[in-house]
Write a structure and sequence with these properties.
Layout (H helix, E strand, L loop, with lengths): L12 H17 L6 H14 L3 E5 L2 H11 L7 E5 L5 H8 L3 E5 L19 E4 L11 H10 L3 E5 L7 E2 L2 E2 L6 E5 L13 E5 L2 H11 L3 E3 L2 E2 L10 H11 L2 H19 L21 E4 L3 H10 L25 H9 E4 L7 H14 L2
Parallel strand pairs: 2-3, 2-4, 4-5, 5-8
Antiparallel strand pairs: 1-9, 6-7, 8-9, 10-11, 12-13
Helix pairs in contact: 1-7, 2-7, 3-4, 3-6, 8-11
The chain binds pyridoxal-5'-phosphate (PLP).
Amino acid sequence: MKVPFLDLKKMDDSLKSELQIAFGKALDEGVFSGGNPVNSLVENLKQFLGAGHLIPLGNGTDALELALRALAIEPGDEVIVPALTWVSTAEVIKLLGAVPVFVDTDSDGLISSEWVNLVNQKTKAVIPVHLYGKMVDMEALCKEAKNRNLFVIEDAAQAFGASQKGKAAGTWGEVGAFSFYPTKNLGALGEAGACFTKDEGLARMITLFANHGQIKRDEHLILGRNARMDTLQAIFLNVLLKYFNEFQATRKAQAKKYLDVLSEIEEIVLPKEILRENHNAHLFVIQIERRDELKEYLDLKGIGTAIHYPEILPDMLPFACEGQFENARKISQNCLSLPLNPYLSPIEQEQVLGSIVSFFK
Ligand SMILES: *Cc1c(COP(=O)(O)O)cnc(C)c1O
């Protein structure tokens, strides 16, 4: 039996038919842009995130870009980002003509507190990334940023559902960026994302940018573009949100099982804090020096794994910059993500564990 890293078509038949019914209803109603489904998604998401403004968008990368635009990040401005993250985080900075300044991570892949040493006159913002679903210590980071008059944009793309001191990931900084890419914990059946902010002015700017700068139909105040969330995705997300807590419980139970069994193996470094509330168990990432060997072994056994991410951003062609980035580099060499998702069965997880244990025998 093969165990895929993630197979989205394995969702429950009952969930599938609920999504099909919702799609059927959309066909009957004929509203394919904006409309009630998007408005209700906004309200539903706010139930999870708390009081503030939620701007539905086309994807998480748009969310990051429009956050930077709303904060008036300009060419030449510097924005500090961790060296290990999905490419979007730094990509949007460069697309705006601003400069991503990379900082190393801690041993879990989260932005190092050393970032404060990179602040200078040109620095405008810092983007903490809640990598793998584990939150950066936002209380500490926001305090440091405030002392230096810097904006905080939270890349919460992987962390929907996590919270720290009762405050949700994505609601700590000036703007939080979310992605509902299909593989995320709250994943659409296509592309979708959102920004969260408590600042009314920023919410207004992001909303304008995302909709051609229109304040109302045919009245364009600023230069904008189309970054709106697709109505169909909002429809699907409204359905999927009802299962979010249940799916989270499944993820946490799987994470616990992995921790219980794998803690016996000394060679493996485990994500020990994954069961805490400041972690949404998006990915179960182990670190092991014989990573490639283990991955190949599991591949042969039919077990799918993934690497998040094989290359640090400063080493990539579009960013190419010098630096050690010791922790980030080590994680990129040693990390391996194990199957963990609501569609993974207990038998499949047993098989993953059995194969890992047999590798060390
Ligand atoms: C998924 C992701 C994004 C981008 O989201 P998209 O919806 O794919 O554009 C940004 N940052 C991180 C850390 C992500 O994991």
